From TrEMBL:
Keyword Oxidoreductase annotated: yes
Matches recorded under Pfam families: 2-Hacid_dh, 2-Hacid_dh_C
Name of the protein this chain belongs to: Glycerate dehydrogenase
UniProt cross-references to InterPro entries, sorted A to Z: D-iso_2-hydroxyacid_DH_PdxB, D-isomer_2_OHA_DH_cat_dom, D-isomer_DH_CS, D-isomer_DH_NAD-bd, NAD(P)-bd_dom_sf
Residue span(s) of domain D-isomer specific 2-hydroxyacid dehydrogenase NAD-binding: 108-286
EC identifiers of the protein: 1.1.1.29
Upper lineage: Bacteria, Pseudomonadati, Pseudomonadota, Gammaproteobacteria, Cellvibrionales
Source organism: Microbulbifer hydrolyticus
Length: 310
């Protein structure tokens, strides 16, 4: 039985324990990256295909006669034609919950950066401005205490709950947005109320028809002008041009994003103009701790073993 891993570069396998993966099938072909024109040839004889972001559309699935299992090395399966796979009785298995504390930790780091402006103070130190100061400290950027502030969480699965506990540890009040499905859940807050009362709004919901461009002009206008927005979920949740306007016109105090609608982003992306000082961007790295990647790999191996050794 042959397996193909199409984009190992997204996992940095040399840092992980891959012994269980290596024994999951008889032979593996590992590729750091796979372009669309290379995919068909690489999967044509495969029984198992692992992909993180490489697209498997209907034509590719139809022309892989040995294919018995598709493993997505991620939670989202939007890069797979699920209907085509189902028609050929090919299971598509993803891995959920592997980010564990890594993503919540990164969300907290972004929140603290917005509140303390430590990254800008660090830049000033490196540029020699502290050495030039007439007093013992610098007070160039406003710092706020998160204790006593309100953290609004949109999306209250495992990750949203972890972030809520971290916020509570800082002394923050927690508001959880009402479900987008209309399901009534006790203790939830209507979105308009959450936006009006929150000092930090953190996104942890999936990207669906209901949440696509959720953070639009009206959403941003409903936030406090002193509030921060954090997105470590999906880039498509945010109308990015609207966010640029809100930041430049100080409709909100700042934003920190780990995800964008197109990744990697083009150099002319509106959020990469370089003149938005109240914006922090990190390159979709909230999940990349070694522990998180090991859990993800173990989850993929588990999916393979359960399929072939039920």
């Amino acid at each position: 039985m042959r397996g193909v891993f199409l984009d190992t570069l997204t996992m940095k396998l040399e840092e992980l324990d891959t012994s269980a993966l290596e024994h999951a099938v008889d032979h593996w072909d590992f590729f750091e990256t796979t372009s669309p024109r290379q995919t068909a040839e690489r999967i044509t004889n495969a029984d198992v295909v692992i992909t993180n972001k490489v697209v498997l559309d209907r034509a590719l699935i139809d022309n892989a006669p040995n294919l018995k299992l598709i493993c997505v090395c991620a939670t989202g399966t939007n890069n797979i034609d699920l209907d085509a796979a189902a028609e050929k009785n090919i299971p598509v298995k993803n891995v959920a919950g592997y980010t564990g504390s890594s993503l919540a930790q990164h969300t907290l780091a972004l929140m603290l950066a917005l509140a303390t402006r430590w990254h800008q103070y660090n830049d000033d130190v490196q540029q020699g401005r502290w050495s030039q100061s007439p007093i013992f400290c610098r007070l160039d950027y406003p710092v706020i205490e998160l204790a006593g502030k309100t953290l609004g969480i949109i999306g209250y699965g495992d990750l949203g709950q972890k972030v809520a506990r971290l916020g509570e540890a800082l002394g923050m009040e927690i508001l959880v947005a009402a479900s987008f499905t209309g399901e009534k859940k006790p203790g939830r807050t209507p979105l308009e109320t959450l936006l009006a009362e929150s000092d930090v709004v953190s996104l942890h919901c999936p990207l669906t028809e209901q949440t696509d461009r959720l953070v639009n002009r009206d959403f941003l206008a409903a936030m406090k002008d002193s509030a921060f927005l954090i997105n470590t979920a999906r880039g498509g949740l945010v109308d990015e041009p609207a966010l640029v306007t809100a930041l430049k016109e100080h409709q909100i105090a700042g934003a920190a994003l780990d995800v964008l609608s197109v990744e990697p982003p083009p150099q002319d992306h509106p959020l990469l103009t370089g003149n938005i000082p109240n914006l922090i961007l990190t390159p979709h790295c909230a999940w990349v701790s070694r522990e998180s990647r090991q859990r993800l790999l173990d989850g993929v191996v588990g999916n393979i073993n359960r399929h072939f050794q039920p």
